[in-house]
């Protein structure tokens, strides 16, 4: 152990379902506007836009349960997403080899300070203030691909206080999981511990303190958080 001026921070980890093991996280990549209906509701034309990415911080991951309403916003939005967890990586990964790097999958929320994100977009500035705040990525326990396979279709949904808000299918993603991995690896060297949030269907909206968010992906799992 090297000599350091303070104790190193703990390595962020995600629980693995049905196991006492934890998945250590290296980086968190997110693809923007990867469902056509969501792109349209945000005022964009999905047919003209190549994939683009932003990042959250590994310590933004949150186990669910109670989600703390973040400071500095009056317009906090939910976004349900499929999370992809990698056990290996590399550069210039071919699409046909991409899934061999996937360890497993999970349900995640990309919580967003929409008012701050909107102001950043308008000013041509980065999105981190709207996306990469504390606890902004609640996640359910991961399930290995060896158990559930590689889901390319299946219902993805979110309800707030029992009322459906988001409903779609993984097959509606503009860029598939192999294509996302290939594109990312053209710009970054991917590695074990990297996780990717793959975008959200239409129906994003605001939540407030006391709201109960229930997210689910068919064949992958479910996640419940209460905003406090």
Automatic annotation (TrEMBL):
Which InterPro entries does the annotation name? Answer: Fumarylacetoacetase-like_C, Fumarylacetoacetase_C_sf
Domain Fumarylacetoacetase-like C-terminal stretches: 28-228
Q: Which UniProt keywords apply?
A: Hydrolase, Metal-binding
* GO MF assignments: acetylpyruvate hydrolase activity; metal ion binding
Keyword flag Hydrolase: yes
Query: Which Pfam families does this entry report, sorted A to Z?
Result: FAA_hydrolase
The record, for PANTHER family, names: ACYLPYRUVASE (PTHR11820), FLUTATHIONE S-TRANSFERASE (PTHR11820:SF90)
Q: What is this protein called?
A: Fumarylacetoacetate hydrolase family protein
């Amino acid at each position: 152990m090297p000599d350091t001026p303070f104790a190193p921070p703990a390595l962020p980890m995600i629980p693995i379902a049905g196991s006492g093991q934890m998945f250590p996280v290296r980086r968190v990549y997110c693809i923007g506007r990867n469902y056509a209906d969501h792109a349209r509701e945000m005022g964009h034309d999905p047919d003209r836009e190549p994939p683009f990415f932003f990042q959250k911080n590994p310590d933004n991951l949150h186990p669910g349960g109670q989600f703390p309403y973040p400071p500095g916003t009056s317009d906090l939005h939910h976004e349900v997403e499929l999370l992809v967890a990698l056990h290996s990586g590399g550069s210039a990964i071919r699409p046909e080899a991409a899934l061999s790097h996937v360890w497993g999958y999970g349900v995640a929320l990309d919580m967003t300070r929409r008012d701050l994100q909107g102001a950043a977009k308008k000013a041509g500035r980065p999105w981190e203030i709207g996306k990469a705040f504390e606890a902004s990525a609640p996640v359910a326990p991961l399930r290995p691909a060896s158990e559930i396979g590689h889901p390319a279709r299946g219902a993805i949904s979110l309800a707030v206080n029992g009322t459906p808000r988001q409903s779609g299918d993984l097959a509606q993603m503009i860029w598939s999981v192999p294509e996302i991995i290939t594109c990312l690896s053209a710009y970054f060297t991917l590695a074990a511990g990297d996780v990717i949030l793959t975008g959200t269907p239409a129906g994003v909206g605001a939540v407030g303190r006391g709201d109960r968010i229930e997210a689910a992906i068919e064949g992958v799992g479910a996640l419940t958080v209460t905003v406090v």
